[in-house]
Design brief:
There is one protein chain. The chain is of the alpha/beta class. 27% of the residues lie in helices and 27% in strands. It is globular, with a radius of gyration of 18 Å.
């Protein structure tokens, strides 16, 4: 069969795609790639790969969905204890100068994944990502307006320029 039973890709993101290709060639049945999966300009290459991959699983490391509070909220939604969801707001504020920006790839990817985990697939209605020059030349804040499969209005905001304490909040 293959050389590996499992593989973990935790190299710099610019190496992810090439490493993923090698592991797929070696037929590793389960591959966990640390986020982000690939550089934004490589995402179409990964989509093209998906039709050629058979009996191999590729996972991306998102961990907020395993938080006990998020899992409890998901169960409440599934059971209908909250009722129909019309509006949801999710935000993450942090002061992370070590990332030098890239808020969408870092915190944004986690909180967008959490929104999808809780509310299902989303349609993008609008998005705005901004650069304020505080953390280099990359994005520092992002806001996303989404619509869930059930028609709920979902807003997501992330930023690295808030100098207060960490704040991860979900309001439904």
């Amino acid at each position: 069969e293959g050389y590996f039973s499992h593989a973990l890709v935790a190299s710099p993101v610019q190496c992810h795609y090439a490493t993923l290709l090698q592991l797929l060639e070696y037929r590793a049945p389960a591959i966990l790639v640390e986020k982000p999966l690939v550089l934004p300009e490589e995402i179409e290459l990964v989509r093209a790969l998906s039709s050629h991959v058979s009996r191999q699983s590729v996972f991306v490391g998102f961990n907020w969905r395993f938080n006990s509070s998020v899992q409890h909220l998901k169960q409440q939604i599934i059971r209908g204890a909250i009722g129909p969801i019309h509006v949801a707001q999710l935000w993450a504020r942090e002061w992370l100068p070590r990332y030098h920006g890239h808020v969408v790839l870092e915190s944004g990817s986690h909180i967008l994944d959490t929104a999808q985990y809780l509310l299902g697939n989303m349609k993008v209605v609008g998005a705005h990502v901004s650069h304020h020059g505080m953390l280099g030349d990359a994005d520092e804040a992002g806001s996303f307006l989404l619509e869930s499969e059930s028609g709920a209005h979902v807003s997501v905001h992330v930023n690295f320029i808030h100098s207060g304490s960490y704040d991860y909040t979900i309001n439904i």
